[in-house]
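debug: dumping io for the single-chain case to check the tokenizer round-trip. Nothing else runs in this session.
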Amino acid sequence: MSSTSHVTEDQRSQLAESGYTVLDQVLDHDVVARVLEEIEPHFGLNGWGRNDFEGLRTERVYAMLAKCPSVAALVEHPAVLELLDDHLRPSRVLAACQGTRIHPSETAQTLHCDDDLPGVARPRPPWSVSVMWALSPYTAANGSTLFVPGSHRWDSPRQPTEQETISVELAPGSALVWLGGIYHGAGPNTSDEVRTGVSIIYFQPWLRQVENMVLVVGPDKAAQFSPTMQRLLGYGVIDGNFFGHVDGRDPIKLIPSTLEKQE
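debug: decoded output
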């Protein structure tokens, strides 16, 4: 492994074999504080989730990059990008990016997989990688994510049980990374505190994004982000072919350059 790597071989192995791993406190405190400052005004605007899966005691902030641009530091964090390299194509795209706040008395979320599609047999290579960034402490009591380790390798008929789950606790500034095929879900919040985080999903480039990122962040807004972020948003073509072009051009060329903005 390169001396400049941001992840360990143990973390790589755990992600591949168990289906999840933890990047412990890899965000600076000032980054956590800046994201919290930007996201805070958006909580409370849309009310609770619309069903048990979204969470009837859970607040969500969608279109995060349009509302809280500092979250880009989480989306393109070098340790996360290294782990994506092991499982997704280089032209992977950002499928979803949302803020989450789970309140006391929230119930457990249904165990599910992030990239299962009807009629597609398991096991199979991952189509997605997800990351939960902790902006506050994540504990078993306040509803930290539950996993069924190794379930990404299961055959299609097998279903998880509550007894097979484990709770993964996180300190603020830590990232919980998992493969799309592992069974997981938010735990119940039996405490008297809220837990706040940012949930991010990355897809293989040929799978349609959960959030339509090029409409969430149009070309003018995309100009404020790095080329890595721009391609994650969907301003690019699939590596190895030209799928996704616009009028015969790479979509990244639609983003105004710094020079053009100054003229």
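debug: round-trip ok. The radius of gyration is 18 Å.
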